Amino acid sequence: MAMVCLTDFEEYAKEHLSKATWDYYAAGADECCTRDDNLLAYKRIRLRPRILRDVSVSDTRTTVQGTEISFPVGIAPTAFHCLAWHEGEMATARATEALNTCYITSTYSTCSVEEIVAAAPNGYRWFQLYVYRDRKLSEQIVHRVEALGYKALVLTVDVPYTGKRRNDIRNQFKLPPHLKVKNFDGVFQQETAGPEEYGIPANTLDPSISWKDVYWLQSITRLPIIIKGILTKEDAELAVEHGVQGIIVSNHGGRQLDGGPASIDALSEIVDTVQGRIEVYLDGGIRTGSDVLKALALGAKCVFIGRPAVWGLAYKGEEGVREVLQILNDEFRLSMALSGCRNVAEINRNLIQFSKL
Ligand SMILES: Cc1cc2nc3c(=O)[nH]c(=O)nc-3n(C[C@H](O)[C@H](O)[C@H](O)COP(=O)(O)O)c2cc1C
Ligand SMILES: CCCCCCC(=O)C(=O)O
Q1: Across the chain, what does the average pLDDT equal?
Q2: Cys staple from 158: which of 39, 61, 229, 350, with CB 3.0 to 4.6 Å?
Q3: Whose alpha carbon is nearest atom 4 of ligand 1?
Q4: What would the pLDDT profile of 244-276 be if each residue is shown by its tens digit?
Q5: Which residue lies with its CA nearest to atom 1 of ligand 2?
Q6: What CATH number corresponds to the domain at position 319?
Q7: Predicted confidence band at 319 (pLDDT cuts at 50, 70, 90)?
Q8: Residue 86 to residues 90, 179, 187, 310, 315: CA-CA distances in angstroms?
Q9: Among protein residues, the one whose CA lies closest to atom 9 of ligand 2
Q10: Which strand (E) or helix (H) includes residue 234?
Q11: Which InterPro entries match (predicted)?
């Protein structure tokens, strides 16, 4: 089967994954308004292409946190890759290493960070962190990933509690017994009876986290800190004031607060507030190369894909993720050329038709 666009991978994954796994990956919170709007919002944006600009050579390279990547699309942190493919996050890591882009490993990976690094020793990686009630647990994993050569910490701030994902509740979704949250083997495994979410003891994440925990995190690491889950200019300003190195504009793929903005709709006010003081990235709803172009035109330095990576895994493991990334790269290059951009530095707000927004 020829895979032409990311939707082909979505259809394949839907057909081949178990219903419970598909539902977990696809889930949005409540009525899924924000999840769906993440995609629709790109379709409301129109481009203003420029012509006759010699686009015979095009360069998609960019940098994130000072490191060059081959194109401005990385992999967002998503949990439980072994549900989609037996080699799980190791396959994802190999694919991103091969394509020379950034892979953000989830705290809830089903391969350990050591296994991931061994699988793709030269890959460029950031680690996504949740803050636990037991700060020692968070501190230990921070020191582990630092020693392993992870280049940044991505602090997810939009999950004080897990959003209400109706199908997961109906399916009583949980990790099957042969899979584990490998980074915390023996710690997160629910061996005794008690409330749990997805097979993980409930209440491990700390809903009391606040800006002072950013200072705490800075006190235990020298890695750059990137806050994931900011949707307003007020919080963007606070992030800058707290000395973090980046922001990921994200609504967690619409899996947390339903009724919040599409991430692309929240981007401009954040970029305007940050004024280049730190890098601003975005995830949510990126499915085509022109989505990438629009996000960059509105000021994102790089975007990240969540679900499309697990669809690629479900299709053919490492090869599937490579294909997903390659298709996005090819589409992005074409969209750039068709709008008259030869390199990412030439992408700017003039490309956006604001009267139609
Ligand atoms: C199945 C799934 C699991 C996720 N797990 C995590 C996670 O462990 N940590 C995190 O910060 N975000 C997690 N996210 C959110 C993603 O990082 C990202 O924000 C979102 O998927 C982007 O939207 P997209 O799927 O439309 O590309 C998850 C998303 C999905 C779909
Ligand atoms: C007990 C919390 C599990 C969160 C799993 C990963 C995640 O963020 C998701 O959106 O799913």
Answers
A1: 96
A2: 229
A3: 78
A4: 999 999 999 999 999 999 999 999 999 999 999
A5: 197
A6: 3.20.20.70
A7: very high
A8: 9, 10, 22, 12, 12
A9: 79
A10: helix 233-241
A11: Aldolase_TIM, Alpha-hydoxy_acid_DH_FMN, FMN-dep_DH, FMN_HAD, FMN_hydac_DH_AS
What residues pair up with 60 in beta bridges, in sequence order? none
In a domain, 350, yes or no: no
Pocket flag, ligand 2, residue 108 (CB < 6 Å): yes
Q: Provide mean pLDDT across the span 194-212.
A: 87
How many separate domains does the chain show?
A: 1
pLDDT at 195: 73
Q: Which ligand is nearest to the CA of 74?
A: 1
Task: Reply yes or no on whether 86 is catalytic.
Answer: no
The alpha carbon of 24 and the centre of ligand 2 are apart by a number of angstroms equal to 10
- Which domain range does residue 198 map to? 6-187+194-343
The pTM score is: 0.97
Within-domain flag for 211: yes
How high is the pLDDT of residue 193?
Answer: 53
What are the tokens at 3?
């895979």
Give the tokens for residue 166.
Answer: 């109706």
Q: Which ligand is nearest to the CA of 104?
A: 1
Q: Which two tokens stand for residue 92?
A: 């994802």
Burial class (CB in 10 A: 0-12, 13-18, 19+), 186: exposed
Domain-embedded: residue 137: yes
Complex ipTM: 0.99
User: pLDDT digit string (tens) for 90-123?
Assistant: 999 999 999 999 999 999 999 999 999 999 999 9
Closest atom, ligand 2, to C-alpha of 156: 8
Assess contact for 33 and 259: CB atoms under 8 A. yes
Helix axes 263-274, 233-241, angle to 10 degrees: 50
pLDDT of residue 71 exceeding 70:
yes
